[in-house]
Amino acid sequence: MRCPLPPSVESIGATTILTQGEYFNRAVLGPRLLVVDELGYLPFGREQASLFFNVVAKRYERGSMILTSNLPFPQWATALADDATLTAALLDRLLHHAHIVQITGDSYRLKDKRKAGAVRAANGA
User: Cα angle at 40 between 43 and 71, to 5 degrees?
Assistant: First the structure.
């Protein structure tokens, strides 16, 4: 279930939405499973990293999360405002009950592009 942001988000800001009230409880704490896709694709600023930590901390041992990332754990600090302390605390909570699935090989998008001839294989074939 996706919970779209209410129209007022732009005027009051994400910090207000995530730190108070009904929307945070319904959209972030409410679902039994929260999916966060492509963590680290775009780096977080300090405020965004803190907000994400709050999401993880509030869901810790209360609800399941699935996170995807192309970054190995040692590089997560660079995606989280270069804050090693925050990253360590976040990973501590995430990994405590985690099942890690490491997937190697090409993504489906890359495979489709190769089939279409838009991208050559890594070995030059």
Answer: 135
pLDDT in tens, 10-55: 444 555 555 567 888 888 889 999 999 999 999 999 999 999 999 9
Query: Among 27, 23, 25, which residue's Cα sits nearest to residue 2?
Result: 27
Tell me which residue of 59, 74, 72, 63 sits closest to 33, measured CA to CA: 63
Residue written as token pair 């190995």: 72
Q: List the beta bridge partners of residue 67.
A: 36
User: Where in the chain are the domains?
Assistant: 32-116
49, with CB counted inside 10 A (0-12, 13-18, 19+), is buried
- pTM over 0.85, yes/no: no
Alpha helices in the chain (DSSP H): 9-12, 14-19, 21-24, 46-59, 76-79, 84-96, 108-116
Residue 29 near residue 62, CB atoms below 8 Å: yes
The CATH code of domain 32-116 reads: 3.40.50.300
